[in-house]
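Our preliminary data section would be incomplete without showing what the modeling component actually yields. Below, a chain of 109 amino acids is followed by its predicted structure, encoded as tokens that our downstream tools consume directly.
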Amino acid sequence: MTIESNVEESPSTILVDEFNAGRPEIYADQVMAVAFGPFVSKFVLGMENHGLGKRTSVATVIMPTNTLHQLARAILDELEKAPTVARIVADHNKFTQVLERNQSEVEGK
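Predicted structure:
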């Protein structure tokens, strides 16, 4: 996986493993809260604890509001690209096929 960056107007591609070396990784399945300010904004990432029916916050990200806006724009721009959409759809379809095959095997036993 790569991250595209154009910091200081010099485009570069950074391998995620190199970029993230030694830093914690956080899994979250939802955004629990967002607070926008004129200069700094933050959002709280969380997880659904399915067995307990509760949501738990796992991290709060605080960043300049203009950087958050750039992030949102970059995500939306990427999701508008046909190759990205095609890859996501194909991966989802493969996953669905595996689930359906597993369900058939379970029902056949």
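The first strand starts at residue 2 and ends at 5. Helices lie at 16-19, 65-79, 82-108. Preliminary results of this kind motivate Aim 1 of the renewal.
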